[in-house]
Amino acid sequence: MSVLLLSLAALLLGAVLLYYLAPGVVFQWVTALARRAAGLKLKEVSVDGHRIAYLDGGRGETLLLLHGFAANKDHWAMIAPLLTPHFRVIAPDLPGFGDSSRVADASYGVTAQLERIAAFARAVGVENFHLGGNSMGGYLATLYALRYPEQVQSLWLLAPAGVLSAEYSDMLRMLEGGENPLIATDMKSFERLADLCFCKQPFMPAQFKKPLLARSIIDAPFNARIFEEMFSEPQALEERVAALSARSLVVWGDDDRILHASALDILKPLMPTAEFILMRDMGHVPMIERPAETALDFLRFHGRQA
Question: Is residue 260 part of a domain?
Answer without folding.
Answer: yes
